[in-house]
């Protein structure tokens, strides 16, 4: 499985030790420090980056970097962490900063929150997307053919999802890239996502909804896509962080990009699991997949693309033509998003 890129798997401290690296903070071994703080440490060896977690707080560091990053938003200067013969060494000022943040500033359950959800019904207007259909009497030659158009399926599911999320989260911004048969360009959809204002420690997630097609009429099922972990994108720039020194931006970008990658994968899994639980008896689970779709790779946030099923499969097209089935799909997506939000807002997120 070459596509399972190791840098997306944030290794636990036991794996770190098995690799021969014995992290210490100054003269204090990390196990003792973590015990004192009731915190946890995870280490990504190829980027030489670690995350210390306690409650809803996360402190990211990188070997050689003169900063630590607090909850992926706030930067604080330190003497750089170094690596000496496989040992990670934290200078005294770094130890003091970490202790003050995790001890003097206890975790606040409201500190990290998903503040906005943008739902993107794919295609629309002049762009119908995939087109298929089903025969009302199966394969009989005399049957009537009912046309199914992707843009209509995407919009119906998205509008129902929008209503459910709006009712459940009146304190969050729930948005649609389109709410009728219009055609926002791909660039306009991404711009809408990236221009949403967020406060400190607030996050946004991007859900793009599509319907599938294949030359193989037997192909059917639901799949959820996320950006390949090896795809490098810019999520931090002079535009997004105008007050940061230019030399800081690559470090911040690397740390935040890793966070978005992890969260996108978990969001995709939770949505897929929930949709299959809701509608799996009627369709198939085609699994999680990786692809650098335009809207996914250009959205500066955790983002996924959902394929609801195949309009080119007679049985599945018939399902996609059913209002009740579309509500089932919508409820599955809603439940997956809700699980993601609940976990994100009540724990340190998905770098655990």
Description:
Residues 1-27 and 348-352 have low confidence and may be disordered. A hairpin with a 2-residue loop joins strand 5 and strand 6 (57-62). Helix 4 (150-168) packs across helix 9 (323-346) and helix 6 crosses helix 9. The chain folds into 2 domains: 6-104, Copper amine oxidase-like, N-terminal domain (Copper Amine Oxidase, Chain A, domain 1, 2-Layer Sandwich); 113-346, Zn-dependent exopeptidases (Aminopeptidase, 3-Layer(aba) Sandwich), CATH 3.40.630. The radius of gyration is 23 Å and the shape is elongated. By secondary structure, the protein is α/β, with parallel strands linked by helices. The chain has 9 helices and 18 strands. Helix content is 35%, strand content 26%. The longest helix is centred in the C-terminal third of the chain and has 31 residues, at 249-279. The two termini are 23 Å apart. The strands form 4 sheets. Strands 1-4-5-6-7-8 form a 6-stranded antiparallel beta sheet, sandwiched between helices. The chain has a 6-stranded mixed beta sheet with strand order 14-11-15-18-16-17. Strands 3-2-10-9 form a 4-stranded mixed beta sheet.
């Amino acid at each position: 499985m070459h596509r399972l890129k190791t840098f997306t798997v944030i290794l636990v401290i036991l794996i770190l030790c098995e690799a021969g690296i014995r992290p210490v903070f100054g003269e204090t071994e990390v196990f003792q420090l973590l015990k004192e703080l009731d915190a946890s440490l995870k280490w990504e060896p190829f980027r030489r980056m670690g995350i210390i977690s306690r409650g809803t707080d996360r402190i990211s560091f990188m070997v050689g970097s003169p900063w630590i990053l607090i909850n992926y938003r706030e930067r604080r200067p330190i003497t750089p962490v170094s690596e000496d013969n496989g040992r990670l060494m934290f200078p005294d000022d770094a130890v003091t900063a970490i202790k003050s943040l995790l001890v003097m500033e206890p975790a606040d359950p409201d500190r990290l929150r998903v503040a906005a959800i943008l739902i993107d019904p794919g295609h629309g207007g002049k762009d119908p997307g995939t087109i298929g259909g089903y025969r009302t009497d199966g394969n009989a030659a005399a049957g009537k053919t009912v046309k199914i158009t992707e843009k209509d399926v995407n919009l119906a599911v998205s509008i129902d999802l929008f209503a459910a999320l709006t009712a459940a989260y009146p304190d969050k911004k729930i948005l649609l890239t389109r709410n009728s048969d219009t055609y926002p360009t791909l660039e306009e959809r991404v711009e809408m996502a990236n221009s949403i204002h967020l406060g400190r420690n607030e996050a946004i997630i991007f859900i793009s909804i599509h319907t599938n097609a294949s030359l193989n009429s037997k192909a059917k099922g639901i799949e959820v896509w996320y950006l390949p972990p090896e795809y490098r994108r810019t999520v931090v720039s002079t535009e997004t962080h105008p007050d940061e020194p230019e030399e800081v931006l690559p470090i911040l970008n690397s740390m935040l990009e890793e966070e978005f990658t992890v969260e996108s994968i978990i969001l995709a899994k939770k949505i897929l699991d929930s949709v299959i639980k809701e509608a799996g008896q009627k369709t198939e689970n085609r699994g999680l997949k990786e692809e650098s779709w335009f809207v996914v790779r250009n959205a500066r946030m955790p983002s996924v693309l959902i394929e609801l099923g195949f309009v080119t499969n007679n049985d599945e097209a018939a399902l996609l033509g059913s209002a009740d089935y579309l509500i089932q799909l919508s409820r599955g997506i809603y439940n997956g998003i809700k699980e993601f939000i609940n976990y994100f807002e009540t724990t340190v997120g998905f770098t655990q």
